[in-house]
Amino acid sequence: MTCRGTLAVPPSARYTFKYVNGGMPIDAATAARAFGDAYFNLLRRGADGSLRLSSDHWRLEELTENAFRFSAREQDAPTLEVRLEDVEQVVWDRLPKQQVRSQIRFVLANGDLWTFSGSVDESALPER
């Protein structure tokens, strides 16, 4: 199943997350539609306080029954997968000074926070 065009939503992706840090909780299917065809920067904050900014630019290729699968614009980058079983919450937010960019954040069960920052398709988000 791809995220382009009409998105068929796997039953396991139909869940809602609790509210986090002023962001809007969204379900996996909404997140997949909001990623659209754009590439995003990825910032990974570990539960241990570590911070890693990926030099690659990521685009959602598909949402399956089990995972979000991303590919990089850069040829030498491996594919990236976020397993649904590892995701505790998905949240959309926009920082106060941002006008075009916004974030889709994956709060992982192990305490890590993965933030995809870029041009989110906000028409796919619920009304705010």
Q: Tell me, what's the shape?
A: globular
Count of all domains: 1
Sequence stretches where pLDDT stays below 50 over 5 or more residues = 1-19
Q: What's the total number of strands?
A: 9
Global structural class = mainly beta
Attribute tags:
128 residues, mainly beta, six-stranded antiparallel sheet, three-stranded antiparallel sheet, 6% helix, disordered N terminus
Explain this structure to me?
The chain has 128 residues and is mostly beta strands. It has one domain. Helix content is 6%, strand content 36%. The protein is built from one helix and nine strands. It has one helix spanning 28-35; strands spanning 24-25, 41-45, 51-53, 58-63, 67-72, 80-83, 87-93, 102-108, 113-118. A six-stranded antiparallel beta sheet has the order 1-7-8-9-2-3, with helices on one face. A three-stranded antiparallel beta sheet has the order 4-5-6, covered by helices on one side. It is globular. The termini are far apart.
Please render the helix and strand layout as text.
Elements lengths: L23 E2 L2 H8 L5 E5 L5 E3 L4 E6 L3 E6 L7 E4 L3 E7 L8 E7 L4 E6 L10
Antiparallel strand pairs: 1-7, 2-3, 2-9, 4-5, 5-6, 7-8, 8-9
Give the gist of this structure.
The protein has 128 residues and is mainly beta. Helix content is 6%, strand content 36%.
